[in-house]
Amino acid sequence: MALKHLLNTMKTNSVIIGELDRFLMSSKSQGSGFVKDEREKGVWHPSSLGGCPRALQFGKVGIPAKITVSAQGQRIFDVGHHFGYMIQGYFYDMGILYGEWRCRDCGYRWTDLENPSPKTCPSCEKELHIWYNLDYLEVQVRDEEYNITGHADALIKTLGKYRVVEIKTIKNRTQGTHANSSCFEDLSAPLESHLKQLNMYLYVLAKMYPELNLEDGIVIYGAKNDQRLKEFPIKLLYDLYVAPQLLNIQIIESAIADDRVLPRPEGCDSKTSWDCRFCGYNDVCYSTESTSLKDYK
C-alpha cells in the first residue's frame, strides 16, 4: 500500500474507520460482495482495449502494474460495482434479464438466453431471488480468433429486441471538479471508451449467438451524487469501433513478437501527463527510452 495513504489512516483517533481503511488497502481485501468470475490473464479484455497501446502491451506480456489504490478509491470502485448489481436487480424484477446464473443453494450454474429472470433453479428446484440465493454472472463474451474475453453487464429484451447493456457510474460536476474531468452533467453521448467496449461486446456476442440478431446496445450512466440516470441507445458500428480495435490487437501482438515497444500516445511525454499520471505502468514506461520491449521488464 502507498505510504501516504497508510499514514492518512493514522491521523485521527477513530474507533473503526482507520482500521477499516487499512484493511481495504491490504492484500486481504478483495472488494465488497463481488460475484464475478476471476479476471483471466493473457487475453484481451474489451473493457481495456480502448486504452493506451503501450500499457496494453505491457499487460499482455505480464509486466505487473503498480497499484496504489487508497481506501477511498477502493470504496468508489466498490460503489460502482454495487450500482451495477442494483440495476441488474431491477432488470431481473422486471422479468427481462438474460445471461449466466448460479444457484447459491446447490451451486448449479447455467446460461439461459430464452427464459429471462429465472425464479426456480433448474437443478434443485429451489425458489430463487437475485442476490439472496441467486447470482447473476452477467454475459460471457469470448472470441477464440482474437483471444478476447470478458463479461457484458446485462442482456435484456425490450421493445421486441435483445440489447446488450453496459452500466457505468460517473461523478457529478462540482465546484472543485477538474475542467478535464468527464461528469454526468456533460454527457450528451457515451464516452468514447464505453462506445468501443460495448461495440466489441456486441460484435463478439453477435458471432456467438447469431439467432439473437444482436445489433443494439445501451450505455446507462448513474450519477454518483444524486442517482440520476442517463441512457444512450447505440447500434453496432463495426467499421468505426470494432475494426480499429481488432487491428490494434494485431499491431500489439506483432510488436510483442518482434520485441518492439510501441510509442506512447500523442501528448504523453512525462509521468505527470494527464493520461499518464494515474497509469499503473507510468514508472516502467518512463524508466528507459529503449525500443526493445525486454528492456521494460
Write a structural description:
It is a single chain. Strands 1, 2, 3, 6, 7, 8 and 9 form a seven-stranded mixed sheet that branches. The protein is globular, with a radius of gyration of 21 Å. It contains seven helices and nine strands; from the N terminus they run ααααβββββββαββαα. The model has no long low-confidence stretch (mean pLDDT 90). With 297 residues, the chain is of the alpha+beta class.
Structural class: alpha+beta
Q: How far apart are the first and last residues' alpha carbons, in Å? A: 22 Å
Amount of beta strand: 15-25%
Multimerization state: single chain
Mean pLDDT: 90
Spell out the helices and strands N to C.
HHHHEEEEEEEHEEHH
Low-confidence spans: pLDDT under 50, at least 5 residues? none
Shape: globular
- Helical proportion? 25-40%
Helical segment count: 7
Alpha-carbon Rg, integer:
21 Å
What is the count of β-strands?
A: 9
Q: Characterize the biggest β-sheet.
A: 7 strands, mixed
Summary, kept brief:
This protein has 297 residues and is α+β, with helices and mostly antiparallel strands. The protein contains seven helices and nine strands, in the order ααααβββββββαββαα. Strands 1, 2, 3, 6, 7, 8 and 9 form a seven-stranded mixed β-sheet that branches. Strands 4-5 form a two-stranded antiparallel sheet.
What descriptive keywords fit this protein?
alpha+beta, 297 residues, 7-stranded mixed β-sheet, 29% helix, two-stranded antiparallel ribbon, globular, 9 strands, single chain
Give the topology, please.
Elements: H1 3-8, H2 17-24, H3 53-60, H4 71-94, E1 97-103, E2 109-112, E3 134-136, E4 139-143, E5 148-152, E6 154-158, E7 161-170, H5 192-208, E8 216-223, E9 229-235, H6 238-257, H7 282-285
Helix pairs in contact: 2-4, 3-6, 5-6
